[in-house]
Amino acid sequence: MGGISIGQLLIVALIVVLLFGTKKLRSLGGDLGGAVKGFKNAMSSEEDKKALEDTEAAKTAQTTQQATEKKPESNKEQA
Predict the structure, then answer these.
(1) How far is residue 7's CA from residue 18's CA, in Å, rounded to a whole number?
(2) What is the largest CA-CA distance in the chain?
(3) Among the four residues 19, 25, 71, 75, which has the most C-beta atoms within 10 Å?
(4) DSSP characters for 7-37?
């Protein structure tokens, strides 16, 4: 008493499908999913983005340093 049974939920779902149609509900679900995804992206903290940028910068610096260390020393060969 007072609760919503599975039968009542099925009746409500059937009425909603009859009113809006499956195509409209499918597009509504896609729009809602896209909105939730956009909200999650917007809520991600700036610190996470900064940490990712710092990590990428460190990798680039390390790669550059390794490349300069591997260069042959042509000055010694000419002397």
Answers:
(1) 17
(2) 98
(3) 25
(4) HHHHHHHHHHHHHH-HHHHHHHHHHHHHHHH
Tokens standing for residue 62: 């390390």
Report yes or no: 54 and 62 within 8 Å, Cβ to Cβ: no
Which of 19-23, 50-54, 68-72 is predicted with the least confidence, judged by mean pLDDT? Answer: 68-72
Q: What is the mean pLDDT of residues 8-29?
A: 92
Residue 68 belongs to what H/E stretch? helix 46-69
57 token code pair: 């910068």
pTM attached to this predicted model: 0.42
First to last CA, the chain: 98
Going by C-alpha positions, the residue among 62, 59, 78 that lies closest to residue 70 is 62
